Every structure is written in C-alpha cells, then in structure tokens.
Amino acid sequence: MRVVDRPLSDALVMPPVRDWLVLTTHPSREEYATQHLERQGFTVYYPRIMKRVRHARRVYDAPRPLFPSYLFVAHSPAVSRWRVLMSTYGVRSVVRNGDLPSLIGNDFIEALRAREVEGVLRLPEKPFTIGQEIRIQGGAFDGLVGTILELRENQRIVVLMNLLNQKSKVLLKADGLSPI
To answer: Which pTM does this prediction carry?
Structure first.
C-alpha cells in the first residue's frame, strides 16, 4: 500500500458542509464537549436560548441549551472521522441508525442560525401577557373566555375561567387561544 503525502494547505481546507452529526453529551457538559471538539478541528454548533433562572432569591436571564445534552458537528463525506467523536471528553455518543450515524440537513442548522442574535436564539415575541382576556378555540372549552394568570414554558398558559359559576384554573396550550 502506498501512502501519498498531501501538502499541508490541502489538509486544512474543509469541504463544504452538507450534513451535521448529532452528538449526545454527558449531563450539563455541552460547553466542555464543544471546547474539546473544537480543539480537534471539528466545526461544532451548540444552539442556546435565553431562559429566566431563579436561584438563591435572584432572578436573571442566562443562556441555556436549546437541546440539553445535544450538540451538532459538521460532517462531510470527504471527512469521515466520526468514530473519533465518541472518545472526546464530554461526549456520550453519536446518535446512530444501526452502525451509521444519523445526519441532519444543513438547512435545519442554517434556519436555527438565522434566528440567532449575539450567539443566542431569540424566540418569537409572545402574543399573550398576564392579565389579558382570551377566547378558547376548539376542544371542550370552545368559545369560552378567560383571563391569563401565568405563562409557562413549552407554550402552556394558566387561564382563570368561570366554569359552572365557579372560578377555576385551567392549563391550556397557547395554540388553542386567541386574544380578544
């Protein structure tokens, strides 16, 4: 077998990215794994969003992972060193389908990156506010009116409604509500 030496400049040119590998990390080790992957020369995407954190009687906004315990690493067919990823500090495994890694298209990653502002994804503005009157659309409460008491994560909203002449709190999805 003959080994062909390539000039160093050819080895540093990264072929165009078409797909991304999905990696799972150890709990809360996304940043640690990202640093070690980048030291090895991989292109890593670690999407984060701003979340409200309550700790020790303080409330502040801090960047948190959009997909906890997951990272994306650029993959091109010309560079197939994906097994090296599994021995990187902080990385638990490569998401696979059988023996081959599962891939995500570049368009998904680019859509996420398009929503970033200063390295953090910005969620769309919330159409609802606490104290706002809303009307329920569809389901068992179709057409009823209520008042928003609380906005929770995952598009859940606590609504105060008058059911059978009694005030009741109901947890609803935001997509089934419309402002009055």
So the answer is: 0.64
Instruction: Read off the pLDDT band of 3 (50, 70, 90).
Output: very low
**Check whether domain 133-179 has CATH 2.30.30.30, yes or no:** yes
In sequence order, what E strands does 66-139 have?
70-75, 91-94, 96-97, 100-101, 103-105, 116-117, 120-121, 133-136
pLDDT one-digit tens code per residue, 50-69: 887 888 988 888 999 999 99
φ and ψ at residue 16, rounded to 5 degrees:
-60, 140
Superfamily of domain 15-121: NusG, N-terminal domain (3.30.70.940)
Specify the residue for token string 């994804």. 121
